[in-house]
Amino acid sequence: STFKPPATGGQCFRTAHEILGLVMAATKCFGRDILTNFAVETVRLLSGFFSATQQGANLSAMLAESDSGAFLATSTLRLLCVVTSERSTKVENLVPQICTLALDEIAPCAQQEAHMADLLPPFLHFTQTMFEHQFKAFVAKQQGSVGLANLNFASSGGGGGGLGVKPTSPMGPVALAAQAAASPSMFRDGAETLFRRFMQMLAAIIEVETMPPSIVREALSVFDHLNQKHNIFNLGVFKTELTAQLLRVLMQALLSHTHAMLEDEMHRLLYALAMSDMQGFFYSFLPTLVAPQLTASWTPDTDLGTFTRHARDFLDNVRAAGQSGS
């Protein structure tokens, strides 16, 4: 049957609020199979509600008006966790719709300073749950990795100026063509864009200097968990784009001592990224950040302890070079 939304945006959200209240209560009463089917249909209905809002009514407006908006957002995320934790063809087919709902409706609100503390933790939990259990909805098969040497490190994707030392020249046409040709074919249709948006949101959380440490730790943990579970740092989209962005975010945060209490976690993530292509990290990535003399003493290390010790020395040298104006 064709979905017919309520007459106004406000009615949409009130109805969605009531439905979610019922679904959350049902989670304590029904068996898992019945609940999953019910939850899947509820997600479809919620997508209709959100897309049918009119007269300026949206989740942001509802969050500003009352606690009902927070309930709607957090309950929706809990529901999405319930659905995506189930492995089935029905759920796999629904994943693109789930991603659109989360990224287009909830993520913009979660990134607003007023709602970060309430919405980002459940959003991050949902993100990890979905990719842990529904990875096959994004990636159909693995393919050979593309080295970091093929990346264009001249731009950070985060609007930064590197680490305070002028980067090297941008890549030439041949390397750019190689980067374009390396677009990962293992992703299902449309899935790469969704995957990239989630990963870039995680990186953006780490990049915000005023972000609560507990939320930054969760974002770091999601990266670490998904890489251990699915080896995401070897995916083509990381090799051609996301690795460079995340490396720059981590190096800048470590250099400026942003989130200083989380530097151990950041070094572990930096090590995992570097290990996905150690030669590329040292001989293609680092030279784009600083003058060659600053990278000469940091050679490829294959164990975490040595890598971290040398990384700290490297960052100290970069800070000293910046202070001396060299």
Short structural description:
The chain starts with 8 loop residues before the first helix and ends with a helix. It has helices at residues 9-26, 32-51, 59-65, 68-84, 89-110, 116-133, 173-181, 191-207, 213-230, 236-255, 263-275, 278-285, 292-295, 304-324. The chain has 326 residues and is an all-alpha fold.
Protein architecture, described:
This protein is 65% helix and 0% strand. With 326 residues, it is an all-alpha fold. Helix 10 packs antiparallel against helix 11. The chain is globular and about 60 Å long. The model is unreliable at 5-10 and 152-185 (pLDDT under 50).
Q: Compute the average pLDDT.
A: 77
Number of strands: 0
What is the radius of gyration? Answer: 22 Å
**Helical segment count:** 14
How far apart the termini lie comes to: 69 Å
The H-and-E topology, N to C, reads as HHHHHHHHHHHHHH
Helix content: 55-70%
Strand content: under 5%
Shape: globular
SS-derived structural category = mainly alpha
Low-confidence stretches: 5-10, 152-185
Instruction: Characterize the biggest β-sheet.
Output: none
